[in-house]
Write a structure and sequence with these properties.
By secondary structure, the chain is mostly helical. The protein contains eight helices and two strands. The chain has a two-stranded antiparallel ribbon. The longest helix is centred in the middle third of the chain and has 34 residues. It is extended and about 70 Å long.
Length: 230
């Protein structure tokens, strides 16, 4: 998108005025401070072909548009109400996440703790496995033997283990365990953004592992509420 700033300004200027199907060759000097050090300050010759020229066009707020967003009867007012509800839910979740991060950091800053080496090594292995799974999901060729330097994960592992120890003590000392009704409330909340909430509820309760993940979220929220004195 021209003007979005994702390309070098001189590259964008060279594209302005071109028509669909047109080809062009031009020289471009990379900035001296360009992040790609191998080409920084050098002149490159680009050959480009413009396949298509397009521009964003806002659709009409009509019944057809509402139906395309899942409103079966095409009711525009219902569509707008759903959008507003989803935005409000997203903003609320982002604010909660920001507050939680601030509370967790405050707990870390206020605690002097020697993290056991064995727990650090175990957490690094967990993070390495998670990274391999992410790479595999993105289509990258990885195996259990793919080298992932432990030092890359040390800071994250340190934070996770430290928080785990702090939260464990706080939960035990203040009775902040996740209650079943809290977990159910979170399940209901998560399911509201789906077309068939009841199916999402069944999906969560069909797996103890998924429920444990939600229990961890509730437990952290309980700690946040305790820390804020709410």
């Amino acid at each position: 998108v021209l003007g979005a700033g994702r390309l070098l300004p001189d590259f964008e200027k060279a594209l302005v005025g071109m028509k669909s199907g047109e080809s062009k060759i031009f020289d471009l000097t990379f900035p001296a401070d360009y992040h790609g050090k191998s080409v920084a300050g050098k002149v490159a010759k680009f050959e480009v072909t413009l396949s298509e020229v397009g521009a964003p066009k806002l659709p009409e707020l009509d019944a057809e548009f509402a139906k395309s967003l899942g409103i079966a009867d095409g009711d525009v007012s219902k569509m707008l109400a759903d959008i507003k509800s989803n935005l409000e839910r997203e903003v609320k979740q982002r604010l909660k996440a920001r507050t939680k991060d601030q509370v967790m950091q405050a707990l870390i800053d206020a605690t002097v703790l020697d993290v056991p080496k064995a727990m650090m090594e175990q957490e690094i292995q967990v993070l390495q496995e998670m990274a391999r799974n992410r790479f595999a999901a993105q289509g990258m060729p990885v195996t259990n033997d793919t080298p992932l330097p432990a030092e890359v994960f040390e800071a994250q592992a340190q934070r996770r283990v430290t928080l785990g120890l702090i939260l464990g003590e706080l939960v035990k000392a203040n009775g902040l365990h996740a209650r079943p009704e809290q977990v159910r409330a979170l399940v209901d909340q998560q399911s509201q953004s789906y077309e068939k909430p009841e199916d999402v509820v069944k999906w969560y309760y069909s797996s103890p592992e998924r429920l444990r993940e939600l229990e961890s979220v509730v437990l952290e929220e309980n700690v946040v509420q305790w820390a804020l004195g709410v």
